[in-house]
Write a structure and sequence with these properties.
Largest sheet: 2 strands, antiparallel
Radius of gyration: 22 Å
Mean pLDDT: 78
Helix content: 55-70%
Shape: globular
Number of strands: 2
Order of helices and strands: EEHHHHHHH
Length: about 230
């Protein structure tokens, strides 16, 4: 039983190690790239479209609508980043049915990298929407005294994202591993199914939180409209 996929060493040369976290992470990225190429290879811009393309467009449209409801101004620009986050975390959970596989999200290094991606993406989307000056001014709202607190907030929520995802993913794998050693195989199978469901929920929550942070970075305080003056009679 491994506490983390970092402990599974496949190859080592001095201080250079190839562990399960690196191997499974690159394997998942290759799977997502190849899968996206196979899924989209026959898409058409003509009026006549396949049922598969209609289904994909319905799914993408629904995702864009949900991203817009979070508060992001142009959801089509953010769907690539948020969708990739969701697919990676969800695929990492779904692949647990493969014997010998351990999700790379069970490593703190992977979850920290995902959280850092959100940390970098939030100001990028904010600057693209408001400009550099407008985004930096948001750190001074409502007063200059809030600058250190706003910076601490950026750092703390990134840390919280990493620790939250790591704790939830690792705890599920640990529970299944313990049950396999002390109980029959039927109960761990049920827990594995529940673990898959939990992984999908964690992928959804992680993506939604990232969308909320991006929407907050794009928020611009606009002055209230002046009341219209009534015409004199």
């Amino acid at each position: 039983m491994h506490l983390s996929p970092d402990q599974m060493i496949f190859w080592q040369l001095g201080f250079i190690k190839l562990n399960a976290t690196i191997a499974f992470t690159w394997g998942l990225m290759l799977l997502l790239v190849v899968g996206s190429m196979l899924i989209t290879r026959k898409l058409s811009t003509e009026l006549t479209r396949s049922r598969w393309q209609n289904l994909l467009e319905i799914i993408v449209t629904g995702i864009e609508s949900q991203i817009a409801e979070v508060g992001i101004h142009e959801p089509r620009k953010a769907i690539g980043f948020l969708g990739t986050l969701f697919l990676f975390v969800a695929s990492a959970s779904l692949c647990t049915i493969i014997p010998g596989y351990e999700p790379p999200t069970g490593s703190l290094s992977t979850t920290a990298a995902l959280a850092l991606c959100v940390l970098v993406a939030v100001p990028m989307f904010g600057i693209a929407d408001q400009g550099l000056g407008g985004y930096l001014e948001s750190y001074l709202e409502p007063t200059v005294l809030m600058l250190p607190f706003n910076i601490i907030s950026e750092m703390s929520r990134t840390l919280a994202l990493a620790v939250r995802l790591f704790g939830n993913m690792m705890s599920g794998a640990m529970i299944i591993a313990i049950l396999l050693t002390i109980t029959p195989f039927v109960f761990p199978i049920v827990m594995t199914v529940l673990g898959l469901l939990t992984g999908m929920v964690q992928a959804y929550i992680f993506s939604i939180l990232a969308a909320v942070y991006i929407a907050a970075a794009q928020h611009v305080r606009k002055p209230d409209p002046e009341p219209q003056q009534t015409a004199k009679t």
